[in-house]
Amino acid sequence: MSQSQSQSQSQDQEQPTARKHTALPKARTLIEALPWLTRHQGKTVVIKFGGNAMVDEELKSAFAQDVVFLHHAGLKPVVVHGGGPQISKALDRHGIVSEFKAGLRVTTEDAMDVVRMVLAGQVQRELVGLLNQHGPLAVGLTGEDAHTITATKHQPRIEGELVDIGRVGEITEIDTGAIEALLADGRIPVVSSIARSQDDHHVYNVNADTAAAALAAALDAETLMVLTDVEGLYEDWPNSDEVISRLTATELEKLLPELASGMVPKMEGCLYAVRNGVHTARVIDGRVQHSILLEIFTDEGIGTMVVPDAEGDSTT
Ligand SMILES: Nc1ncnc2c1ncn2[C@@H]1O[C@H](COP(=O)(O)OP(=O)(O)O)[C@@H](O)[C@H]1O
Ligand SMILES: CC(=O)N[C@@H](CCC(=O)OP(=O)(O)O)C(=O)O
C-alpha cells in the first residue's frame, strides 16, 4: 500500500468518527426518552389542546409534529380539543353575547349552533389537516359520533342556587368503541367536546378539559396531558408564578376550592382522571414549542404533574 493510499484511508476512517461525535447530543437526547417511551409502548395518551395555546400557527404545527412523533414511537395518542377563544370570536361576529358562569359558557340554542360549527367545522378540521400533513393518520369526530360522549343538562350551583346555563352538558356516559376502533386501525382520533343529549335529540356544549378527563378515564389511558397558556398550576396565582411541579390527588383536592377561572375544570379533570385509573395527569405550557416532547425528553418534566394517592411504579 502506498503512503498516499494509507493517508487517505486513515482520513476516511477519521471522518465517520468525527460525524458520530457531532451527533452524540442528539443520540443522548433520544436515549433520555427511552425509559418513558418503553413504559408508554402501546399505551393510550389523551392530549387536550386548549383554545388559548391554539391561536399561534407555529405552535399548532409543532403540536401536530409532537403528536405524530408519539404515534410513530408506538403510543396511541388521542387528541381532545377546545376552542374557547375561537367560539367567543364567532359568537361576537354573530352578535350573540357570550358570558361565563361557574367557568362555563352560558350556551343558548343559537349559541350552541355556533359552538358546534366552530369546534367541529373549524378547529377540529384544522387540527386534522395539520396532523394529516404527515400521512393518513387523523380522523375527526365529536362526542355525538357513535355515542362517544353522552350528557344531560348541567346546572351548576352558584351561591347555593341551581343556575340555568342553557345547553351545557354534564357527561353521563362514554362509549369508547369508535375511538378504540380508530386506534386499532393506526389512526389518531381528534375529538371535539360536543356531547349527544340523553334528554332530547339535540346536543350539549361540554368543557373540553372535562371531556378530555372523562375520555382518558374511560380509555384507561396512561396519561392525560392538558396543554394550556400558563406554565402549570401556580401555587399562589395571581400573586406568584411559582409552579407546583407535582402533587397527589388529595393535595389537589384540598387546593381546588382556592382555584379560579379556567384552572378549575382543568384541575377537576386531572383529579377525576387520576382517581379513575389514569396514572398521571399533567398540565403543561402549550405556549412553548414542542411542549409535549419537552415533557417526555426531560427527566424532570415540565409543568404540573398530578399522581394518584397510592403511588405505584407507574407514577413518573
Ligand atoms: N392557580 C392557577 N395557576 C395557573 N393559572 C390559573 C390559576 N388559577 C387560574 N388560572 C387561570 O387559568 C387560565 C387557564 O385556563 P383557560 O384560559 O381556560 O385555558 P385553556 O384555554 O388552555 O383551556 C390561566 O391563563 C390563568 O389565567
Ligand atoms: C361549556 C363550555 O364552557 N364549553 C367550552 C368548550 C370549548 C373549550 O372548553 O375550549 P377551551 O379548552 O379552549 O377553553 C366553551 O364554550 O368555550
TrEMBL record:
<feature type="compositionally biased region" description="Low complexity">
    <location>
        <begin position="1"/>
        <end position="11"/>
    </location>
</feature>
<comment type="similarity">
    <text>Belongs to the acetylglutamate kinase family. ArgB subfamily.</text>
</comment>
<dbReference type="InterPro" id="IPR041727">
    <property type="entry name" value="NAGK-C"/>
</dbReference>
<keyword id="KW-0067">ATP-binding</keyword>
<dbReference type="InterPro" id="IPR037528">
    <property type="entry name" value="ArgB"/>
</dbReference>
<comment type="pathway">
    <text>Amino-acid biosynthesis; L-arginine biosynthesis; N(2)-acetyl-L-ornithine from L-glutamate: step 2/4.</text>
</comment>
<keyword id="KW-0028">Amino-acid biosynthesis</keyword>
<feature type="site" description="Transition state stabilizer">
    <location>
        <position position="266"/>
    </location>
</feature>
<feature type="region of interest" description="Disordered">
    <location>
        <begin position="1"/>
        <end position="24"/>
    </location>
</feature>
<comment type="function">
    <text>Catalyzes the ATP-dependent phosphorylation of N-acetyl-L-glutamate.</text>
</comment>
<keyword id="KW-0547">Nucleotide-binding</keyword>
<dbReference type="InterPro" id="IPR004662">
    <property type="entry name" value="AcgluKinase_fam"/>
</dbReference>
<keyword id="KW-0055">Arginine biosynthesis</keyword>
<keyword id="KW-0418">Kinase</keyword>
<feature type="binding site">
    <location>
        <begin position="83"/>
        <end position="84"/>
    </location>
    <ligand>
        <name>substrate</name>
    </ligand>
</feature>
<keyword id="KW-0963">Cytoplasm</keyword>
<dbReference type="InterPro" id="IPR001057">
    <property type="entry name" value="Glu/AcGlu_kinase"/>
</dbReference>
<feature type="site" description="Transition state stabilizer">
    <location>
        <position position="48"/>
    </location>
</feature>
<feature type="binding site">
    <location>
        <position position="205"/>
    </location>
    <ligand>
        <name>substrate</name>
    </ligand>
</feature>
<feature type="domain" description="Aspartate/glutamate/uridylate kinase">
    <location>
        <begin position="43"/>
        <end position="285"/>
    </location>
</feature>
<protein>
    <recommendedName>
        <fullName>Acetylglutamate kinase</fullName>
        <ecNumber>2.7.2.8</ecNumber>
    </recommendedName>
</protein>
<dbReference type="GO" id="GO:0003991">
    <property type="term" value="F:acetylglutamate kinase activity"/>
</dbReference>
<keyword id="KW-0808">Transferase</keyword>
<feature type="binding site">
    <location>
        <position position="105"/>
    </location>
    <ligand>
        <name>substrate</name>
    </ligand>
</feature>
<dbReference type="InterPro" id="IPR036393">
    <property type="entry name" value="AceGlu_kinase-like_sf"/>
</dbReference>
<dbReference type="Pfam" id="PF00696">
    <property type="entry name" value="AA_kinase"/>
</dbReference>
<dbReference type="InterPro" id="IPR001048">
    <property type="entry name" value="Asp/Glu/Uridylate_kinase"/>
</dbReference>
